[in-house]
């Protein structure tokens, strides 16, 4: 099994920045790529803030925090990932941009490098097929917020080698996560269950004529959820939820996967949840 020393992360939005934080905390030299260096630096600042909070709360030593921060290099250039042993992609959740990126990575990265996608609802097999090394392409599906959620699904696409699965699982374990391996089916394990469940919850808003507050109160107190469905969709991003639901509906034709009209309208209106300041709730 090839040793992983350096990790590239592409896309430093909520998921990518969380993954980069895990990589530097686990001791990997990490290259984070954003569209511009300025966006990359903003993500690095957010990561630095979360690590400072861990120091303030006694969860991390100052020296370890500073060393971790120094392990992150941000760049606007894809070529800067040429020497990475493992690249984890966390860009927009759309097939064609991901396939174009993987074709480019296939050209830039060493032939033995492993390429991982954080896709939550697209086919890893279709993404891998854009490269000449599908045996080295694997799914590494993190959950939002990545530094706090304990699970990673390691996904075996049609041609993924056992070796690549081992590498991804070992890195996930070094990130401190519980790793569950599965095959490349629509939604893998968690989203196969969670997306239709959240859609059901959102339909109940209209059917039972309850407010988001009341629905969230019901599920947190009546079902033991750590946060209510409306707060969760706001956290994940209304646009991300709609995209994932549409992708799963397209692949499964299961009507429960289709996003309810209400959240599609919210997405179209730019009510994206926490990241836009307004979704089911409003945020400062
Ligand atoms: N990155 C790094 N650190 C973060 C962070 C982030 N994004 N968000 C919060 N933190 C840190 C903060 O420093 C925070 O401490 P301070 O507020 O003191 O600074 C610390 O973590 C703890 O935060 P909270 O007090 O908010 O933690 P909590 O105990 O309330 O738990 C939670 C928060 C883990 C999110 C919990 O509410 C939970 O488990 N919610 C359910 C989340 C869930 O189901 N996620 C899955 C979404 S589905 C998905 O991701 C799949 C997909 O493909 C779309």
Instruction: Give me the count of strands.
Output: 8
Strand content of the residues, in percent?
5-15%
Placed side by side, the strands forming the largest sheet appear as 3-2-1-4-5-6-7-8
- Distance between the terminal alpha carbons, to the nearest Å? 47 Å
Order of helices and strands: EHEHHEEHEHEEHEHHHHH
Count of separate DSSP helical elements = 11
What value does the Rg take, in angstroms? Answer: 19 Å
Class from helix and strand fractions: alpha/beta
Ligand inventory reads: acetoacetyl-coenzyme A
Tell me the overall shape: globular
Mean pLDDT figure = 97
Largest sheet, in brief, is: 8 strands, mixed
**Helical residue percent?**
40-55%
> Which runs of at least 5 residues are low in confidence (pLDDT < 50)?
none
Give a nutshell description of this structure.
With 284 residues, the chain is an alpha/beta fold.
């Amino acid at each position: 099994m090839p040793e992983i020393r350096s990790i590239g992360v592409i896309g430093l939005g909520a998921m990518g920045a969380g993954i980069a934080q895990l990589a530097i905390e686990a001791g990997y030299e990490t290259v984070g790529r954003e569209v511009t260096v300025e966006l990359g630096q903003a993500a690095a600042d957010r990561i630095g803030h979360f690590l400072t909070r861990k120091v303030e709360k006694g969860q991390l030593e100052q020296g370890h925090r500073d060393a971790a921060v120094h392990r992150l290099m941000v760049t606007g250039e894809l070529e800067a990932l040429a020497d990475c042993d493992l690249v984890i992609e966390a860009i927009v959740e759309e097939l064609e941009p991901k396939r174009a990126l993987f074709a480019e990575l296939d050209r830039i990265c060493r032939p033995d490098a492993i390429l991982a996608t954080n896709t939550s609802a697209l086919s890893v097999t279709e993404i891998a097929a854009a490269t000449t090394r599908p045996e080295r392409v694997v799914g590494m599906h993190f959950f939002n917020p990545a530094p706090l959620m304990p699970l990673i699904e390691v996904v075996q696409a049609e041609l993924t080698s056992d070796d690549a699965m081992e590498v991804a699982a070992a890195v996930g374990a070094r990130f401190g996560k519980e790793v569950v391996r599965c095959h490349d089916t629509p939604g893998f394990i968690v989203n196969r269950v969670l997306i239709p469940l959240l859609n059901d919850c959102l339909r109940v808003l209209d059917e039972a004529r309850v407010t988001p507050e009341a629905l969230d109160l019901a599920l947190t107190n009546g079902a033991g959820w750590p946060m209510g469905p409306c707060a969760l969709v706001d956290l994940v991003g209304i646009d991300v939820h709609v995209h994932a639901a549409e992708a799963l509906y397209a692949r499964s034709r299961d009507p429960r996967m289709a996003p309810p009209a209400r959240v599609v309208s919210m997405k179209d209106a730019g009510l994206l949840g926490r990241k836009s300041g307004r979704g089911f709730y409003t945020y400062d």
